[in-house]
Design brief:
101 residues, six-stranded antiparallel beta sheet, five-stranded mixed beta sheet, mainly beta, single chain
């Protein structure tokens, strides 16, 4: 099962087929408490072939050093780092990209 690791806390999150990340405890599968994180900041989605990251925020999502456009989805692979809110914040890292169960 796919996993995402918070490189600062070293917490590991199991990914659902459609997995949301944000500050909102009621609507996010993974909650981040940083105030720069949007209520629903991004989604990680299995498209049947690979994982995609989609920016849903106003503050920005970076894949490595590339800022995603609003609502843009891009494929990700093991080792990719996702910065939530600012490129200088500790990233989330995809550590397993197997399909969801």
């Amino acid at each position: 099962m796919a996993q995402l690791r918070d490189t600062q806390s070293l917490r590991v999150f199991q990914l659902r087929a459609h997995h949301t990340i944000g500050r909102c405890t009621e609507r996010s599968d993974t909650v981040l408490t940083n105030p720069i994180t949007s209520r629903i900041h991004l989604a990680l989605e299995w498209d049947g072939h690979c994982w995609q990251v989609r920016d849903l925020s106003k503050n920005g999502t970076w894949l490595g050093d590339r800022r995603l456009h609003a609502n843009e989805s891009v494929p990700i692979i093991v080792g990719d780092r996702i910065h939530v809110g600012a490129p200088d914040l500790p990233p989330l890292e995809l550590v397993d990209d197997t399909p969801p169960q």
